[in-house]
Specification:
It is a single chain. This protein has 257 residues and is mainly beta. 0% of the residues lie in helices and 47% in strands. The chain is globular. The two termini are 15 Å apart.
């Protein structure tokens, strides 16, 4: 659909029923859309189409992990429960880039801005959670044990993102926002979830602000000053995102649109 609401076009009819934030993503160059499709047997499958709805590539790995694009718009990356991390290219080639061993779950991966490293969640059997970095040479570095930060076990909803090639950010469900300097490594609390709880964090295109959802509020957190601007709304907010130029935001509400 155009920004003025004209030329509404249906691109796909097989969207997975239980979608969540991050389940539909444009590539950075605007040429492709990745989303989670539903197979005839109800299996969630990561899928790439072009802007006209033509199917370009589809994974056959069971996964409803959020989608993240490579900065070059050539591939997406996602995790599969107890299986590992996968990439799916616009050329149709699927590749396992990290093998999960034993009762562990590696998921929620995100490429660094230069595309050379991947941050992801490593969840060991029980309640041990870690943020790890996989570099282009296959070397894994543990950069944060976020058990010390959290009181929730929803590690699938950390929404890891990169602020720079050295710094990542993630949120604890309905609580705090944490940054990690991967070169130190050291972690810092930059937003404490009072009186608002952090949810659905999205880094602005220029990496200077973090948009997140509060309780009946839109919050924009400045990554340098840590000032948090709160814009209260009348309805509970659903999904939200930045405009591509970072000058505006869009959101859905439960009672309106």
């Amino acid at each position: 659909v155009n920004t003025d609401g004209s030329e509404l076009q249906q691109l796909a009819t097989d969207v997975y029923e239980y979608t969540r934030h991050g389940s539909i993503q444009w590539s950075s160059d605007g040429s492709y859309i990745a989303y989670i499709a539903e197979s005839d047997t109800g299996i969630p499958l990561h899928t790439i189409i072009d802007s006209n709805g033509n199917k370009i590539a589809q994974s056959f790995i069971y996964s409803y992990d959020p989608i993240k694009w490579h900065p070059s718009s050539t591939a997406i990356i996602f995790g599969s429960y107890t299986d590992g991390l996968y990439s799916l290219g616009i050329n149709g080639i699927e590749e396992k880039i990290l093998r999960t061993i034993g009762f562990t779950y590696d998921h929620s991966p995100a490429f660094s801005p230069d595309g050379r490293r991947i941050a992801y969640v490593h969840h060991e059997y029980g309640t041990l959670y870690y943020i790890r970095i996989l570099d282009e040479n296959g070397v894994i570095t543990e950069v944060d044990n976020y058990n010390s930060h959290m009181s929730s076990d929803h590690d699938e909803e950390l929404e890891i993102a990169w602020l720079s090639d050295q710094s990542i950010v993630y949120k604890i469900r309905d609580k705090d926002i944490i940054t990690v300097d991967t070169s130190t490594p050291a972690s810092y609390l930059i937003f404490a979830g009072k009186p608002y709880s952090a949810s659905h964090i999205i880094v602005s295109p220029d990496k200077k602000e973090i948009l997140h959802r509060g309780d009946y509020a839109l919050n924009i957190l400045n990554t340098e000053t840590l000032a948090d601007n709160v814009f209260e709304v009348e309805d509970y907010i659903g999904d939200l995102d930045w405009a591509s130029n970072g000058t505006a935001i869009v959101y859905t509400s439960f009672l309106s649109a």
